Hints:
The protein has 180 residues and is α+β, with helices and mostly antiparallel strands. The chain has a single domain (23-176), classed as 2-Layer Sandwich (HIT family, subunit A), CATH 3.30.428. Helices cover 34% and strands 14% of the residues. A hairpin with a 3-residue loop joins strand 1 and strand 2. The longest helix is centred in the middle third of the chain and has 22 residues, at 94-115.
Amino acid sequence: xxxxxxxxxxxxxxxxxxxxxxxxxxxxxxxxxxxxxxxxxxxxxxxxxxxxxxxxxxxxxxxxxxxxxxxxxxxxxxxxxxxxxxxxxxxxxxxxxxxxxxxxxxxxxxxxxxxxxxxxxxxxxxxxxxxxxxxxxxxxxxxxxxxxxxxxxxxxxxxxxxxxxxxxxxxxxxxxxxxx
Length: 180
């Protein structure tokens, strides 16, 4: 390289661009070498052993539980997880499937009551190739949506505005959780 290329390359390193970055180096354990957690280091296996507010758990059932996503797409983004460390919906028992469905329905009711949302995105990414960040432990996403939640920020500023803190959202949803 000549001096011009070296200077141009050096000037570009660390130069700001339009993309905002959230540095989360602790996530490398799930990204590096395609590591998928087993039951000994899985955050979805560890969460039920913690206090609800520490683990962001909003409700517990017999075979599954609901917690807030630590990296939400929107405020109130919840995950419905079986307690068992299984990777696929096909491995779930009929009881787990029924409770995941019931908890998903209650999560929607609680989010409507606590957050006044207009709709939801609900789904499961099965396997790494399908986009599952933690493919080794089955989980269903329940993402509240509002008519006004789509704005220029993610497109222009590459930034997602989160209007509430996770702990505050957890408290509001847990308080609004419908009991049978």
